[in-house]
Design goal:
Helix content of chain C: 10-25%
Order of helices and strands of chain B: EHEEHHHHHHHHHHH
Structural class of chain B: mainly alpha
Low-confidence stretches of chain C: 291-297
Oligomer: heterotrimer
Radius of gyration of chain C: 25 Å
Largest sheet of chain B: 2 strands, antiparallel
Number of helices of chain B: 12
Strand content of chain B: under 5%
Largest sheet of chain C: 6 strands, mixed
Chains: A mainly alpha, B mainly alpha, C alpha+beta
Mean pLDDT of chain B: 83
Distance between the termini of chain B: 12 Å
Shape of chain C: elongated
Number of helices of chain C: 9
Low-confidence stretches of chain B: 288-294
Strand order of the largest sheet of chain B: 2-3
Strand order of the largest sheet of chain C: 6-7-8-3-9-10
Strand content of chain C: 25-35%
Mean pLDDT of chain C: 87
Largest interface: A-B, 104 and 106 residues
Number of strands of chain C: 21
Helix content of chain B: over 70%
Number of strands of chain B: 3
Amino acid sequence: MRTERGHWLLWAYCLYLLAPLYWLLSLALRRNQDIVTRLQVLPSPPTLANFKEIFSDPVWYSAFGNSLSYVLLNTLISVAVALPAAYAFSRYRFLGDRHLFFWLLTNRMAPPAVFLLPFFQLYSALGLFDTPLAVALAHCLFTVPLAVWILEGFMSGVPRELDETARIDGHSLPYFFLRLFLPNLRAGIGVTLFFCFMFSWVELLLARTLTGSASKPIVVVMTRTVSASGIDWGVLAAAGVLTIVPGIAVVWFVRRHLARGFALGRV
Amino acid sequence: MSGRRYDNRAWLGVLPVLLIVAFSAVIPLMTVVNYSVQDIFDMSTRVFVGFDWYRDTLRDPRFIDALLRQIGFSLLVLSVELPLGILVARSLPRASPRTGLLLVLIAIPLLVPWNVVGTIWQLFARPDIGALGAAVNALGIPFNYTAEPLHAWIVLLMMDVWHWTSLVALLAYSGLASIQNLYYQAAELDGAGRWQTFRLVELPRLKAVLMIAVLLRLMDSFMIYTEPFVLTGGGPGDSTTFLSQHLTTMAVGQFDLGPAAAFSVLYFLVILLLCWLFYTAVMRDRDGADVDAN
Amino acid sequence: MAEITLEGLRFRYPDNPMDTLEALDLRIASGEAHALLGGSGAGKTTLLNLLSGLQTPTSGCIRFDGRDVTALAPRQRKVAQVFQFPVLYESLSVAAMLAVPLRNHGWSRRDAARRAAEIAARLDLAPLLNARSGDLSLYQKQLVAIGRALVRPDISLVLLDEPLTAVAPAIKWQLRRVLKTAQAELGATMIYVTHDQTEALTFAERISVLHAGRVLQTADPETLYEAPSHEQVAHFIGSPGMNLVPGEITAGRLWLAGHPLGGAPGLTDGACTIGFRPEWARVSAAPAVSPAAAGTSIGGVPVTVDAVRVLGTRLQQPEGLVGIRVGTTHVYTRQPIDVAPGCPGMLHVRPERLLVFRDGARVA
């Protein structure tokens, strides 16, 4: 009934989303000298030379590994610490709960640029500079509040009767939480992982500041390789394509929970 | 949040979060505040200067300019992304086999690394190698975003809309998906038009998610750094230099620690104020909803 | 208010080999309170959507006062609907809520407000006119929803889709009374969809029983109860439903389990189904007469009492349901409880009340 309206708008919007992506892909499939000499809508002949160049360079491998390791570390830490906190917020009232919740959210709102220098000094002093852990911890500042927020929403959707039944049955809190409560939260945890990934994978500023040569992440390698060798548009585009692939894979896995996830479990 | 038991042992559950956030927020924030009241020549030579840096910053025309540009940019992107996101969400089919695919497509820009977003638009909009830039020039309109501030703003706006409208659309879609079809049928039988249906049926249900959308978009657009850094580098001139860009230049580029710290504190306070205003609005709304449910 | 006529109305989903609604003819008088009674999957909701215009029939036509409205959109039909649970604009006040349909149809602000207040008074909603719809109780919300459906005086038809579902059982009767009163006072043509026979029998002047996409019978409550035209109707109406037992007709007589039950003049010999309401039959604990001795006289059918359930007393005599077994079939009688489970008994049915069904339809 209402779906027929505004279809043209949806198609126009999809076109708007896809056009730059298509252009990126088409540049990635052309040699640099072709790119700068003439415009082509279809790459002809398409070439995988740019991708070959990237895959033959070990810097790219290690950069991918570095990125994945801090993203994984970050999502694990975030979910692990956010679960008990979200449970506390969703099930109990306690001294200062509202203020605490607000304070947590303010951290999500803090501009990363504000923390650049202090982070650099803090992690240098602790000997964590240039390790994936440093980036993971720095990203926690933004992902943990978000994770608490999302999980609290999902937990509020789980009926309190479940807790009460478990208490009457004499289960301990840890047993109840891990064995009975968490299985109800699978969608919520999946969505939280998605949002943590969404921040940690895409962030550049902190990742660049807190890494040196040893644990350089993929997003940084991309900018450096380019500025070093003049600008090779083809390789740049190919690298761009490669960094989008993990994102697409992650969306694909959570696609069924996407709508509910974006309601942050609340609606 | 009604019906929760009062129990201060719940603090134990919050403790890990508290520790980790304290470690990554409180300590650095204290460092920033500490710097902001000192003049630092090197790590061992520093002089207490009180609120001098704050006064200087507030009088610095570059700070004022960057702040005004920032406010202008944030309002601009919000005024485009919010209505567009809602329209896209409304035009998404519900529970059709294509819905899943469309949702995935719409979510993609959110998972593109921010510097790659800048790169994508750079490649797309450049007048020499970009499809968009070349196409506009081919139409006889001279277009070069690296030289013309207005063009740079247009491309920035297009990029931000490309990047973030999806967030609004997905939030709004999840809100719309919770409205049962009966509400639309009832409105239809009342003879309600499109606008009335939106205002009376959809908007009340969207209020909560739209609050979140506004909150996230306002804050995130206030922090924007990476995408314009890659796309325009803050130029031409200072025309696309926003607060984060300005701050990073000061702190990392020029190593003006004191002024940069004062700047940071002010920056943070502005965002905090906005955030608090919205948070109280959202919470009041949620409590209202709780009362309804009982 | 309008007279509603359905002519050969048929509906089938494009990918479904079966009709959801088979060719349906029905006439509902202007100002009539009509009920559509049927279980889930009977086609009630589809018929409702065809009437409101949310779905278009595959063939056939719908007339309001003789005018063909089949092709008209919902808003052009002047149809109002009350849903299973209150569907309101929760952000509006009750007064604003009731004025919406009027304002959308060209009423001035003042006239709309006056009419809204009038309807609210009729539904005992006057004190709540300024309350936010979303803040009301479920019962009050549903009253507002009913008010919204009745507020336009030019409305042709009011559809009620199980409107009491969401309301607490204790106040269902109250809502039904308000609804019935308003219907009578306003002379509204109403179609009340429900699966609950009590609601249908107490609300409607006439009832259409729907089963598997067909209207089995349209009649007033009494006729439905006493003379169901169809086995399904007989079984569906009443609590417990009508007893239906396999029988036999030979030589103009009706036989149950080898015993004559009554005459069946004009019917051909062969198998049939015998129907009788529990209160039309009685089991007596009289000593069993041997089948042979019973011969061909209409003396009764020997049965075994399975169970008894006391429902009340009458003249200090317990009264209730007696469950008995006739051959392999279980039937109930409603009578004084003067038999005990396990006892043999004799079943007598008032012969003038016996109904005979063949192939599901009643033949006598």
